[in-house]
Write a structure and sequence with these properties.
This protein is an alpha/beta fold. The protein has an 8-stranded mixed beta sheet, sandwiched between helices. Strand 4, helix 6 and strand 5 form a beta-alpha-beta unit. The N and C termini lie far apart (42 Å).
């Protein structure tokens, strides 16, 4: 009986932990994240090869998650009419099914930037990271912790000011080459 109680408690704790990871707060408003993303993307030395005339941004949301859908819609509105490095942007949306399907869409449509809305758990983020290895794309996450588990760039609020977080090893694996000017302004995460 004790063993069953222990395992029940362990499973409940794991479920609460997984849910908490998926329900993390978006510290920096989505519209501001998009403004910062546009600035950072302009300093990616590989952007011209990835987006010679049009910067295609794929906004990824989680199925049946209101916060995720809401943030994705905000991101899409914030991208309307924006320009990155003298190139217009084109935003499209994808409801997440798995990492390989996401990577296939990125390759097929020539996506330059992926924006991951909130609502994803660690396993899903790691699936995204694995699938995007070797794919030339700047992946960005709406939640600060996403940079630790699946994306190149995310945003946090430190002392009331937005802070950019960059995972350099993942950037290299996704063929993102940020200039030294940007790297001076970010917090590097491993």
């Amino acid at each position: 009986m004790r063993r069953r109680s222990f395992f029940s408690s362990l499973i409940a704790a794991l479920l609460v932990g997984a849910s908490a990871a998926a329900d993390e707060e978006v510290a920096v408003p989505v519209a501001l994240q998009i403004e910062l993303l546009i600035k950072v993307a302009a300093y990616d030395k590989n952007l011209p090869a990835r987006a010679p005339s049009l910067v295609k941004v794929l906004i990824v949301s989680k199925r049946d998650d209101g916060q995720s859908s809401n943030a994705a819609q905000q991101a899409q509105r914030a991208l309307a009419g924006k320009v990155v490095a003298n190139r217009p942007t084109e935003a499209s949306a994808l409801t997440f099914s798995d990492g390989p399907a996401l990577a296939a869409r990125v390759r097929e449509k020539g996506i330059a930037v992926v924006y991951v809305a909130p609502g994803f758990n660690q396993g899903e983020l790691e699936s995204i990271a694995r699938a995007l290895e070797g794919v030339s794309v700047l992946s960005t996450g709406a939640v600060a912790s996403f940079v630790q588990h699946g994306v190149v760039l995310s945003f946090d609020l430190v002392g009331g000011k937005p802070k950019l977080l960059v995972h350099l090893a993942r950037a290299q694996r996704q063929k993102v080459d940020l200039s030294a000017q940007v790297l001076k302004l970010v917090k590097v995460v491993e």
